[in-house]
Amino acid sequence: MSEGLDLAAAQVRALAAAAWAFRWTVELEAEVRFDRLASRLELMPGSASLAPLARRAARDERRHAGHCAQLAAVYGSAVAGEVAPPPEVAPAGLEPEEAACYELVAACCVAETGSVAVLTSLLTSAREPRLRAVLHELAVDEVDHARLGWAALALAHRRGSTGFLGLLLPAMLKGSVDDDFFLPADPARQDPRLLEFGVLPHSARRALFVETLDCVIFPGLEGAGVDTTAGRAWLAGEQLQVGAALTP
Questions:
Q1: Cα 13 to the center of its chain, rounded Å
Q2: Which of 57, 131, 186, 227 is geometrically suited to a Cys-Cys bond with 166, CB 3.0 to 4.6 A?
Q3: Model's pTM, two decimal places?
Q4: Are 176 and 74 in contact (CB under 8 A)?
Q5: What pLDDT sits at residue 244?
Q6: Is 86 helix (H, G, I), strand (E, B) or coil?
Q7: Reduced to 3 states, what is the DSSP secondary structure of residue 187?
Q8: What domains appear along the chain, each with residue ranges and CATH number?
Q9: For residue 63, how far is the Cα from the chain centroid?
Q10: Using CA atoms, how far apart are residues 117 and 68, in angstroms rounded to an integer?
Q11: Do 102 and 149 touch, CB atoms closer than 8 A?
Q12: Average pLDDT in the chain
């Protein structure tokens, strides 16, 4: 029995190490995205005031990547080096202002707002001081990153140029989660001991994503003139997939 428990504990620790290593990659990619966005915003007279905020976000993400690398190493997964430049997020065919708006909404209003919810949830369970400090620092910074996106969306709304986002929401939301996000997870990824390492169990992360969409992101988008019908339909369809997969 003890050997089984030791094996399960080692598996949880390995999953946590992999999660923080993955976050390291995500943070480095986010640094590149924010720097790229800043360069584009600087060329848009009506949005140039947002460029310094994007530059600061890029610096934050580089610092976050360092924290993620350290925690991944502590838990057993060493990472180093750089990552390949991430691909463009916005669909082809959009005007430059629309493409920048799309990427800011995807990166900040969706991804960073969701990240704040995850980090806040994790803070209630984390006990180890170093982990708590990292989670708190990331949460504070990512509140600012989310605000950048909502500020950009409000600016676009005042110009009357947010309507195009409605039909693009399904693709945006799909791109914000893993391919298996709405599928049953391996039991090890449901282990509540993951919380001790700053990782939400799979079903808890999925439930929090749905709650954040319903209570924060969709209402915020609607307040900025974005029709969320297509996005809500996508979410409902994915939830049906979960139910079907869990039905014997």
A1: 22
A2: 227
A3: 0.93
A4: no
A5: 58
A6: coil
A7: helix
A8: 2-246 (1.20.1260.10)
A9: 17
A10: 18
A11: no
A12: 93
Q: Which two tokens stand for residue 84?
A: 């390949």
User: What does the block give as tokens for 43?
Assistant: 């060329």
CA 70 to chain centre: 20
In angstroms, rounded to a whole number, what is the distance separating the alpha carbons of residues 184 and 203? 8
* 112, amino acid identity: E
Compute mean pLDDT per 10 residues along the chain, 248 residues long, and list them: 62 96 97 96 91 98 98 94 91 94 97 97 94 98 98 95 97 94 89 96 96 98 98 94 60
Q: How many residues does the chain have?
A: 248
* Amino acid in the structure at residue 35: D
Question: Which of helix, strand or coil describes residue 111?
Answer: helix
Q: What is the distance between the alpha carbons of residues 15 and 72, in angstroms, rounded to a whole number?
A: 10
The pLDDT assigned to 5 comes to 47
Q: Structure tokens of 248?
A: 């014997």
Residue ranges of alpha helices (H) inside 164-217 are 169-174, 202-212
